[in-house]
């Protein structure tokens, strides 16, 4: 049902979460998987918590690097992006992402939004024409001042090339004070706090006007009324969040006034952008400035997570230590991979990946603790209670304390997830599972069956009830295993339930967070399915040679024609990076020799 933004938000405020759209300059790696899984966990949590959720992901497909890589591969840019974008869509499916939209910046709907935003900024006097001269990273699609370079490279380690060309500029300098006011009024706009301080220092240093068009290539959205220029890829890319918000954004006046119309999951502004720390500046300086220039609301929050490293070193294709998420899921299963990514390191910090770390964490928390608790409880219910939920007797303070802790998990987890502390939510659940294991060991229901059957039934009922609540709350982290767990506990899904489990499939209220309460407790007499392993233990074979610490067990496959085409595309990307490095070295040599501008410009031509 279409309704206006004002009507929708007044009736039911939404939760709009995004990944960055992934640049099609490489095949997906563990960093992409990390961002996608984290964003999906936050989306699932909020759906299960009864909120109207919009979850967006997609691919960023324009820019100089894409055009040059397509030329090297001998294919048209659109064909190149079609191939690589499909890999990111496949990864999202593999990781069980429940996105409501997958945006591609080559779509006509996106071009229309970018043109609308550009026209608004022109109308408001924020764009002018000039010329740009300086360093540019083709890999990052970003401009860098001389003082920002580290050993002749971008701060990200990317090669830079010297650029000299006509350009349109955005008056970013005019937004220094508005951005500082934004950061001051909303201290949680940038999280974690250390990242906020980093951006604060950058803006306090004064902002320079930003080049927002290029003439050196043509693969991009053309500037309205001046098609010799294409719009800067980051202005293009960031606008995706507006294009795919679910409202009709062709009329920005309607969006500003709340009159824009949209479907059930339409939300504006974004509640939280989840990004890697390397693209924080674009999301917390450029993006809010673009929106302020158009009189539009800025996002509520931008959260920057850290990087995964290997033995403390950044992953690199040249070193050969990049982790392939497809191989990882094939080796260990999607729930194990999701759980490790979400809990293996505090969200927001850097973390070191190793196969041993993944296996040890999953075995300790899922197999040894949760899986063992579920299996022991279910086996006892089947052997001692004829496979039915037993009737509980009077609860002691011990049972009441354990169940109060379990019912209280929702409020605790909600506070953690509101702060994007997904690792703390997982810790709370793991801690409660450990309490349940201590409880079953102390009560020994296998012995009570002979000495006090009524007490045994009370203990088993308490364990089933605690497991029910834990299984419901585990769904954002391990969706497949949690469904199997709830199936075993007799918590049945129903098509009439709330929109909670995915973007497409509603889930019964019995599996939503509203059911984490005594009023939805397990019902005595309910027949339960036969026990089956839900969180199996991963057997760790002898570790591979240390030269490949990140490698998941290889899965031999026959290369397909499509895979060969992908490899051709990726080889072309490597060739482009090499050419950029060589040009940058030549320009640096000329500048060191105090060559005149004409000589330097000849290198750019």
Question: Any overview of this molecule?
Answer:
Keywords: Aminoacyl-tRNA synthetase, ATP-binding, Ligase, Nucleotide-binding, Protein biosynthesis. One of its GO terms (molecular function) is ATP binding. Residues 572-605 form the WHEP-TRS domain. Its EC number is 6.1.1.10. The protein is of the alpha/beta class. The chain folds into 2 domains: 3-305 and 575-604, HUPs (Rossmann fold, 3-Layer(aba) Sandwich), CATH 3.40.50; 354-520, Orthogonal Bundle (Isoleucyl-tRNA Synthetase, Domain 1). Helices cover 48% and strands 13% of the residues. It has 22 helices and 19 strands. Strands 2, 3, 4, 5, 9, 15 and 16 form a 7-stranded parallel beta sheet that branches. The longest helix has 32 residues, at 561-592. The protein starts with a strand and ends with a helix.
Main features:
7-stranded parallel beta sheet, 4-stranded antiparallel beta sheet, 22 helices, 2 domains, 48% helix, protein biosynthesis, alpha/beta, elongated, 605 residues, Rossmann fold, Isoleucyl-tRNA Synthetase, Domain 1
């Amino acid at each position: 049902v279409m309704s206006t933004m004002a009507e929708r938000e007044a009736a039911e405020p939404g939760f709009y979460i995004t990944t960055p759209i992934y640049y099609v300059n490489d095949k997906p790696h563990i960093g992409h998987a990390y961002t996608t899984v984290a964003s999906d966990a936050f989306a699932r949590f909020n759906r299960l918590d009864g909120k109207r959720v919009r979850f967006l992901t997609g691919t960023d497909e324009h820019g100089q690097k894409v055009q040059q890589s397509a030329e090297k591969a001998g294919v048209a840019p659109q064909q190149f992006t079609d191939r690589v974008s499909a890999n990111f869509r496949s990864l999202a499916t593999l990781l069980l992402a429940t996105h409501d939209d997958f945006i591609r910046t080559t779509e006509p709907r996106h071009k229309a939004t970018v043109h609308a935003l550009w026209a608004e900024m022109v109308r408001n006097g924020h764009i002018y024409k000039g010329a740009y001269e300086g360093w540019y990273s083709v890999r990052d699609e970003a401009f860098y001042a001389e003082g920002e370079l580290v050993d002749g490279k971008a701060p990200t380690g990317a090669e830079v090339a010297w650029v000299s060309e006509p350009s349109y500029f955005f008056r970013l300098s005019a937004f220094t004070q508005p951005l500082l006011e934004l950061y001051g009024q909303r201290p949680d706009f940038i999280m974690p706090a250390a990242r906020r301080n980093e951006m604060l220092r950058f803006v306090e240093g004064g902002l320079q006007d930003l080049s927002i068009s290029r003439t050196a290539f043509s693969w991009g959205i053309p500037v309205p009324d001046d098609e010799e220029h294409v719009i800067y890829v980051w202005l293009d890319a960031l606008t995706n969040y507006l294009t795919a918000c679910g409202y009709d954004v062709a009329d920005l006046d309607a969006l500003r006034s709340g009159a824009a119309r949209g479907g059930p999951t339409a939300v504006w502004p974004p509640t939280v952008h989840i990004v890697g720390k390397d693209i924080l500046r674009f999301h917390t300086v450029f993006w809010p400035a673009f929106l302020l220039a158009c009189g539009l609301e800025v996002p509520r929050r931008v959260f920057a997570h850290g990087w995964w490293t290997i033995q403390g070193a950044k992953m690199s294709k040249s070193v050969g230590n990049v982790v392939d998420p497809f191989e990882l899921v094939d080796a260990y299963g999607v729930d194990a991979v999701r759980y490790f990514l979400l809990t293996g390191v505090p969200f927001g910090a850097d973390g070191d990946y190793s196969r041993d770390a993944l296996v040890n964490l999953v075995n300790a928390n899922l197999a040894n603790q949760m899986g063992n608790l579920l299996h022991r409880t279910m086996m006892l219910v089947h052997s001692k209670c004829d496979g039915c939920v037993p009737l509980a007797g009077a609860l002691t303070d011990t049972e009441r304390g354990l169940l109060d802790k379990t019912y209280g998990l929702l409020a605790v987890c909600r506070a953690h997830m509101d702060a994007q502390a997904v690792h703390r939510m997982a810790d709370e659940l793991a801690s409660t599972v450990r309490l349940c294991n201590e409880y079953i060991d102390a009560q020994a229901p296998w012995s009570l069956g002979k000495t006090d059957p009524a007490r045994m039934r009370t203990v088993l009922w308490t364990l089933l009830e605690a497991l029910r609540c834990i299984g419901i709350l585990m769904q954002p982290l391990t969706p497949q295993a949690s469904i199997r767990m709830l199936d075993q506990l007799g918590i049945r899904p129903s098509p009439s339930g709330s929109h909670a489990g995915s973007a497409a499939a509603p889930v019964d209220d019995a599996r939503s967070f509203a059911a984490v309460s005594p009023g939805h407790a397990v019902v005595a007499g309910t027949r339960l399915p036969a026990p089956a392993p839900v969180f199996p233990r991963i057997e760790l074979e002898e570790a591979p040679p240390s030269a490949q610490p990140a490698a998941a067990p290889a899965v031999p496959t026959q290369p397909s024609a499509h895979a060969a085409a992908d490899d051709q595309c990726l080889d072309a990307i490597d060739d482009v990076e090499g050419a950029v490095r060589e040009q940058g070295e030549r320009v640096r040599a000329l500048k060191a020799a105090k060559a005149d501008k004409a000589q330097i410009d000849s290198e750019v031509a």
